[in-house]
Amino acid sequence: MNKLDLLRSRRQEVLAVGADVRKKINALVDPESFAEFDSYSFSENEFYQGNVGGEGVVTGTATINDNLVFVVAQNAAVLSGGITDANCKKIAKCQQKALRASAPLIYMLDTRGVAVGEGVNVLEGIATVLAGSNALKGECTQIAVTTGDVLGSFALLAANCDFHFVVGNACATYASPLVISAASGKKLTAAEIGGAASAAKTGAVTFAASDLESVQCTIKQILDTLPAYNGEVETMDDFNRATPSLNEKACAKCMIEATFDKDYFVEMNAAFAPEVKTGLARLGGTAVGALVFDGGEKGVELDFNNVAKIKEFVYFCDENELPLVVLVNTLGIKAELNTALSPIMKEIANLSYALYNLSTPVINVVYGKAVGLGYTLFASKALGADYSYAFATAKISLFDEVKGAMIELAGVNEQNHDAAEEKYADENQDPFNAARNGYIDDIIEPQFVRARLIESLQILTR
Q: 270, 301, 448: which is closest to 365 by C-alpha?
């Protein structure tokens, strides 16, 4: 057999072993754009006594909406999707190539854990992959797409990515769902433990997706918004667009619609701590990170979950050089035992540090309430905000209501009670008191918030 015929024969063997995984890749990327490398890596597995075709992973480059991406796709048809040392080395090689090219890396994950017979070598391999993922943070966007059951250490790789998609009934968890279910004494499905159904409790799933086509659609939106891949664009949305209805009532949904460019808001981790919305957006064509408190008339009370969500998003904005726009409607820490016994104070301290050290511009707008610690963290300029604004209809104060002041002043004389009641009456909690002392840069008529934010953002990013 001549060399060319031999090459074709070997290529057919490679394609046959990875037929299913290549279909998944082609469903995610632009048509005919995938270019594979290291396809002829074949190591020997002593336990299975056979070659590991392609090391059980397919790597290469492709485009999504004409953006260059690197792809790592685990092949569940090899060693039952088991992770090997050679598998990890091939992934690490792709990570290094993505880093050199400053291009996004997409991991398509489907593995039952470490392959039998690997020994400690594979643990070193996993450490190498995790180290490679850490090296990419802040340099290249990492996207995990869980297409099957991802059990064991590679669930940590998914959690380490900027975005994590779970497709259908797939799941990613550190141990077998059967083991976890048995140990807990409950009959739980894999989806409840590590799939889309777990997202509300773990925050580990950024997007739940029905199929790879919907994953591709969202990735296009992400790459179209992140400044590293697509800078300032013309969104054809009026910079001076006003929303008169905000003068009557401002809610989180209408604030998002009124503030950010139309069709340019992609919410992240929607199921986890939904009272705090985080997402990618554009404002006057400029990419921003959007943090929106959705607490209705009451406002959002802080707890461990929503503070952790906010902290991680602040880090995300810092790593991706995204200006942060915060639409504020929040109080202090939730007064309940579960919150009091959680690591809430340490997590808030970490959030305070992240806000103070954020390297990108920050603009705060109090559209609802900024009360107590809620004001300190998300309205005060002392923690790093470049501009702090408030609606004329906003509420800024030490306590949310007179009753709160009364509780704090329990045991003092009646005269102080009367003074506190007057001080914390609704009419004395307007933002003009903060503006009088220079803490708030300006009081905004609600309907014009978009124009004011675009103006401020242009000043900060020019």
A: 448
396-405 confidence digits (pLDDT tens) = 988 776 555 5
Q: How far apart are the first and last CA of the chain?
A: 64
Predicted pLDDT at 7: 47
Return d(Cα 332, Cα 61) in angstroms, integer: 47
388 beta partners: 364
Report how far apart, in Å, the C-alpha atoms of 364 and of each of 68, 369, 447 are: 34, 12, 16
Closest CA to 85 of 53, 47, 43: 43
Residue pair 446/246 in contact (Cβ under 8 Å)? The answer is: yes
DSSP string of 225-260, one letter each residue = HSTTTS-S------TT---GGGGT---HHHHHHHHS
User: Token pair of 24, please?
Assistant: 């998944």
Kind plus residue range of the DSSP H or E element containing 443: strand 442-444
Task: Classify 32 in phi/psi space as left (phi over 0), alpha (psi -120 to 50) or beta.
Answer: left
The helix (H) or strand (E) run that includes residue 353 is: helix 344-356
The phi and psi torsions of 144 (rounded to 5 degrees) equal -100, 135
Torsion 346-348-353-358 (CA) sign: positive
Say whether 448 sits in a helix, a strand or coil: helix
Would you call 93 helix, strand, or coil by DSSP?
Answer: helix
Q: Which residue has the tokens 């619609």?
A: 257
Residues 6+ apart with CB under 8 A from 142: 104, 105, 107, 133, 136, 160, 161, 162, 163
Q: What is the pLDDT of residues 163-198, one digit of tens each?
A: 999 999 999 998 888 888 888 888 888 888 888 888
Selection from 348, 437, 325, 331 nearest residue 394 by Cα: 331
Closest CA to 110 of 210, 16, 18, 239: 18
The secondary structure of residue 187, as a DSSP letter, is: -
- Quote helix, strand, coil % in the chain, to nearest 5: 45, 25, 30
- Residue 110: which H helix or E strand, with range? strand 105-111
